Amino acid sequence: MKEHIAKDTVSIENIYTLDGKVPLAKSVPFGLQHVLAMFVANIAPIMIVAGACGLTAQNTASLIQTAMIVAGIGTLVQLFTVWRLGARLPIVMGISFTFVSIFCYVGPRWGYEAVIGAVLVGGCIEGILGLCAKYWRGLIAPIVAACVVTAIGFSLLSVGANSFGGGNGAADFGSAQNWILGTVTLVCCLLFQIIAKGPLKQLSVLFGLIVGYILAVCMGVVDFTALHNVKAISVPEFLPFTPVFNFNAILSVVLIFLVSATETIGDTSAMTNTVLHREPTDKEISGALACDGFVSSFSALLGCLPITSFSQNVGLLAMTKVINRRTIATGAVVMIVAGLIPIVGAVLATLPEAVLGGCTIMMFGNIVLSGLQMIGNCGYTQRNITIAALSLSVGLGFTQVPEIFAIFPDIIRTVFAENCVAVVFLAAIILNLVLPEDQETIGGEHEHTK
Hints:
- The chain has 18 helices and 2 strands.
- The protein is an all-alpha fold.
- It has one domain (15-440).
- The chain has a two-stranded antiparallel ribbon.
- The termini are far apart.
């Protein structure tokens, strides 16, 4: 009865329930906390990919604006569902880092339009697979997802290092100026994380970004041309980039959509286990994946990149226990409103690459550690050790020597030669299917006999 009253009564205590009513004025700060925890990570992929693809500052600003709107819409769909899209769980969505390395490969070769075409197709495929998740979910074992997350972290380290140096192709790459900006930003992130207490620690990246940006302005390296003639309010344009459907690009990106699906399954499972103390249902997994896929395709129609569930927000839920869907929805609404105000995106587009690198290099390292923790949570059985060791060795090792793929057709080289995430994913899937489930037991008996 008490729980029933709590859900029907407007109370701040309901922030710890999924469906209770919370006073708006008191729910907004908690919703904003989720926005601030993922804000930098939501815009960073846009800025990295836009830089790699040679997009203009105006295009980058527009994409940042769209990214905030799409992230807000995706979060609302996950919270409250549309048809069979969404899990009805407190999942916060944002632009995915998983695709950054493949987009930095596809974009410069076939153009940003090929990226959009691949996302449009790949999102639909993931969405359809999501609706049918109960038939294939068992193929993605926890150890496969753990290896994939670890590989994603490693694949992004070079991306963060390039940003730290000033960005790919920058005339002043590796200059003292970029070293100063990147180092100061990184040190500020670390100091804030050491000094701050409780939930404030989640804002360390944002603090570093602000300090780094102020320093960049003082050093005169911020380009404000993107702020010229900015409208007060603007809505995203439909199909600002005409999609190009390049088969090689589509195949590469679809494979990473499958990788992204494993991350979403992992995030959803982690959230329900740590906060709701239960396993996710097939319906919740299906809804989460369908939202991932179809909203990503919607994002492509607006010229933007795919979205996915954000692991840092799952960690924030576990830390604060604030799981109320209405409360988190206030943060989603804030993102949408901010996206409708172009000046926000325009200002963020002026952020120097070195400052972004100072922020993201630590974030990418955290992804590596998250993957290693996931491997540990799977258990160090002989079978899991074999899957993790061999898939990571092949994936990370072979792609550092792409010439090893010389005997394969062009399409194989395009997808795998420089994409360690794809190789790790494929190797882990195959090993998970072929290795006997009782391998560790057989080994144990053998050792005991000896």
